[in-house]
TrEMBL record, chain A:
Keyword rRNA-binding belongs to the record: no
Organism: Belnapia rosea
GO cellular component: a single term: outer membrane-bounded periplasmic space
Cellular location(s): Periplasm
Location, primary (coarse class): periplasm
Alphabetic keyword roster: Signal
Name of the protein: Peptide/nickel transport system substrate-binding protein
InterPro entries: Peptide/Ni-bd (IPR030678), SBP_5 (IPR039424), SBP_5_dom (IPR000914)
CDD domains the UniProt entry points to: PBP2_NikA_DppA_OppA_like_5
Cross-referenced PANTHER family: D,D-DIPEPTIDE-BINDING PERIPLASMIC PROTEIN DDPA-RELATED, PERIPLASMIC BINDING COMPONENT OF ABC TRANSPORTER
From TrEMBL, chain B:
CDD domains: TM_PBP2
Full protein name: Peptide/nickel transport system permease protein
Family of the protein in this entry: Belongs to the binding-protein-dependent transport system permease family.
Keyword Kinase carried by entry: no
Parts forming coiled coils: none
Segments forming domain ABC transmembrane type-1: 96-305
Length: 501, 315
């Protein structure tokens, strides 16, 4: 009797196990912010949006722009973009997705109070409905990056009816045209979405439910995957890759991200730029020459991150192939310091966000540059405080990363141009400004890449305005039962094509 | 009695007012510009920053910001979370039961382990049992929660696969799963308090056991179990109960590290995330709510003391 009960219990557990496979549980690094494509700003939020909200365009593995809710586009002239739309697409509330909805959504992104999309599509002047399947977008000035903005949140189309009804609370119940619709959200605990039966590409959506669980601790997130409480984690640490590889029930995929890790140098932002280090590019060159990027990557990141000297990642067609790190050369660094007339160790301070791995990076750099003649002081600071310090110029050098954008403009202009909002070191060179502005409107890919090559040659090799260290990697781990994951450099988890056996 | 109660209630108002000024003031001293943090990677756009400041009234003078907040808080409106745009009051009400459940479970574990261990080690003073109990108590007190938590996850979830490594299921949804998700964090929290309770119980018991009334009880030929259990322990428990109440209050304020490790969506996690994201309304609301809980608890404790000890009533 007892045996039969036990067997029955085991059988029901087994059934429960089979039912579990109906849900894909994904561990996220943090809790996403508001789920309104106009107001959202976190990276993890974009992972959830990949299930909820389709965009006009998407990108593929080669970072090429491919249609999603659109079927195609054409430039009528350099300032006029015509987009044709997919037929028969419905929002989660059953409303039709048409040119009017696209016009409404773009205007919402552009004008809604608190919109984070405004700066992304600020070059848009007006959107006009040509017919229900066609929309025409007029720009204030020619812009090469504009189309790529429509591959992210600025290209997400929301149901006008639902958005009007919900107003600023739309993020609590977003209604889009994505493969999944929102079931519930418990802040800091879970976000649950279920398959949308009327999705336009329903044939490629195989998993009925996805639950996103924010688990900030790296060890605990991995433990959840190992114990089977999660099927997939958004990211693991480089030193956990081996642990996952040893486990035959798990798989790990490491692939380049769009962003970079860098050191911002304060050249002209306030009184703290009043140092020999800030005035003389030879001293900054010596500092850079003392750094061995590969060795740091090896020590701190198991050699997983790829050293770089430029902000554009290798996956991008605009990556400048010839522009590589110079390699560590302490003798040359010392010679440069002598040439600059420096005697004694050069005092430099580096602000480092207070994470274990970044502190370690700081310590390795400290040891490296000391050999060349620098006395580097590390200033570990909580991230939000460090941002403010950098913004008002209260730093000498600052170790900071950028998550990256598909279009090279998003990795360069705002950081290098003298008018750039995140040019915290206040580097300014009119020639570089001119080249960056030109690259913004250049439509020929080869010509544009050549412009970026010139920008890097002047702003980095000659002026030493910033030091790029490496391109990080997205490291996704999942159960071997999951198949069909498509690694794309933007790090999103696209549910189309995923299968859970 | 009623006059006393009203007077006591009246004291709460200035306490809360002073607290509200402190919470608001301390927050202003916190480095980091909330507008910059909220803008995230859009922080390069001065227009975005100006817009955030205007919307959140960060461009107004501080006294105005404070009065605006207080005026609405007294009506129970703590505003909206800047990060996820949900009402702060809703977040607090959502997280409070979670933390309450965790606190009760941790406290029960602490009581079940701490008090018997203290009694046994006092009775068996300087014997191996006493040394063992003392050793374990020291372990419980000095072991960092995050370390113990991770070790438990690795053992019970990853190696043995008995318990879910993290997360939370409400009691009302699935009691068994709810216990499974909270037992490890409750044990981690409880083990530290158990150590403290054990040490205090042991000290109080040693004191009680040397008292005259215990000697008298033994002289009367009472069974040793009755002497220890009914005579000594009862008296020894009074300071332990006081200590227990304080520890329970601390548990309700949210177990910051433990909730973070086990990803329990409670008070502690709410406030940590809010501080790191500079989500001021949430920080203000949660700290105020915690203060309110403490003030209420201490009022209840005062009433209980009066009920227990009639001598206090005339004072």
């Amino acid at each position: 009797m007892i045996r039969r009960t036990l067997l029955a219990a085991l059988a029901s557990l087994g059934l429960a196990g089979a039912a579990e496979a109906q849900t894909l549980r994904i561990g996220l690094r943090e809790d996403p912010d508001i789920l309104d494509p106009t107001l959202a700003r976190t990276f993890v939020g974009r992972i959830v949006f990949a299930s909820l909200c389709d965009k006009l365009f998407d990108i593929n593995e080669r970072l090429e722009i491919v249609p999603q809710l659109a079927t195609g586009y054409a430039w009528e002239d350099p300032k006029t973009l015509r987009i044709t739309l997919r037929e028969g697409v419905r929002f989660h509330d059953g409303e039709a997705m048409d040119a009017e909805a696209v016009r409404y959504s773009l205007n919402r992104h552009l004008t809604m109070q608190g919109s984070f999309r405004r700066s992304e599509i600020g070059t848009m002047e007006a959107a006009e409905v040509v017919d229900p399947r066609t929309i025409r977008i007029r720009l204030k000035a020619p812009s090469s990056p504009f189309l790529s903005q429509l591959t992210d949140r600025a290209g997400m189309i929301v149901s006008p009816k639902a958005a009007e009804a919900a107003g600023r609370n739309f993020g609590n119940a977003p209604v889009c045209a994505g493969p999944y619709r929102l079931v519930e959200r418990v802040a800091q605990d879970r976000i649950v979405v279920e398959r949308f039966p009327d999705y336009w590409d329903a044939g490629r959506v195989h998993i009925p439910r996805i639950t996103f669980l924010p688990i900030p601790d790296n060890t605990v997130r991995l433990a959840n995957l190992q114990s089977g409480a999660l099927e997939m984690v958004q990211t693991i640490e480089p030193d956990d890759i081996k642990t996952v590889q040893r486990n035959s029930r798990l798989k790990v995929v490491a692939y380049d991200e769009l962003g970079y890790q860098s050191i911002v140098l304060n050249i002209g932002n306030g009184p703290r730029a009043n140092t020999a280090f800030a005035r003389d590019p030879r001293i900054r060159a010596a500092f850079e020459l003392a750094i061995d990027r590969q060795a740091i990557s090896q020590v701190v990141y198991e050699g997983v991150y790829a050293p770089t000297a430029q902000p554009i990642p290798p996956a991008s067609p605009f990556h400048v192939p010839g522009f590589a790190p110079e390699g560590r050369d302490v003798a040359r660094a010392r010679a440069l310091l002598r040439e600059a007339g420096v005697t004694g160790p050069v005092p430099v301070e580096m602000t480092v966000p207070n994470n274990p791995d970044l502190r370690q990076v700081g310590e390795v750099i400290q040891a490296m540059v000391q050999e060349a003649g620098f006395a580097l002081k590390l200033n570990a600071m909580e991230f939000a405080s460090s941002l403010q310090a950098a913004n008002r110029g209260d730093f000498e050098t600052y170790l900071v990363a950028w998550s990256g954008r598909v279009d090279p403009d998003g990795n360069t202009w705002t950081f290098i141009h003298s008018q750039g909002g995140q040019n915290d070191g206040k580097y300014a060179n009119p020639e570089v400004d001119r080249l960056l502005d030109e690259a913004r409107v250049e439509t020929d890919a080869a010509a544009r890449r050549a412009l970026y090559a010139k920008v890097f040659e002047i702003s980095l090799r000659q002026d030493r305005s910033r030091i790029y260290l490496w391109h990080r990697k997205n490291i996704v781990a999942h159960t071997a039962r999951l198949s069909g994951f498509l690694p794309i450099a933007d790090g999103l988890i696209r549910p189309q094509g995923l299968r859970l056996n | 009695m009623l006059a006393w109660f009203l007077r006591r209630l009246g004291q709460i108002v200035p306490t809360l007012l002073i607290l509200s000024v402190m919470i608001f003031g301390l927050q202003q001293l916190m480095p980091g510009d909330p507008a910059l943090t909220l803008a995230g990677e859009e922080r390069g756009d001065p227009q975005v920053l100006a817009q955030i400041r205007a919307e959140l009234r960060l461009d107004r003078p501080l006294p105005e910001q404070y009065l605006h907040w207080v005026a609405r808080a007294v009506q129970g409106d703590f505003g909206f979370s800047w990060r996820i745009r949900e009402p702060v009051a809703k977040l607090i009400l959502e997280k409070l039961p979670v933390t309450f459940q965790l606190a009760v479970m941790a406290f029960l574990i602490a009581l079940v382990i701490g008090i018997p261990a203290g009694v046994i080690s006092a009775v068996r003073r300087d014997r191996p049992v006493d040394w063992l109990a003392n050793g374990l108590a020291l372990f419980g007190i000095s072991m960092p929660n995050f370390w113990l938590g991770i070790m438990m996850i690795l053992l019970f979830s990853v190696q043995l696969g008995w318990l879910p490594p993290s997360g939370y299921v409400p009691l009302t949804e699935d009691p068994v799963q709810s216990l499974a998700t909270t037992i490890m964090p409750a044990f981690v929290l409880g083990s530290g308090i158990a150590g403290v309770l054990m040490r205090h119980t042991r000290a109080a018991m040693l004191g009680a056991l040397s008292q005259d009334y215990v000697r008298t009880a033994r002289a009367k030929g009472l069974d040793e179990r009755v002497v220890v259990g009914r005579h000594a322990l009862r008296n020894a428990l009074i300071p332990v109960v006081t200590l227990g109440t304080i520890e329970f209050g601390r548990l309700l304020a949210g177990a910051v590290l433990t909730e973070q490790i086990f990803t329990i969506p409670g008070f502690g996690k709410l406030i940590v995330d809010a501080v790191f994201n500079r989500d001021y309304p949430v920080v203000q609301g949660v700290v105020m709510a915690t203060a309110l809980i403490f003030v209420t608890l201490s009022l209840i404790a005062d009433i209980l003391y009066m009920a227990v000890n009639p001598r206090l009533r005339s004072a």
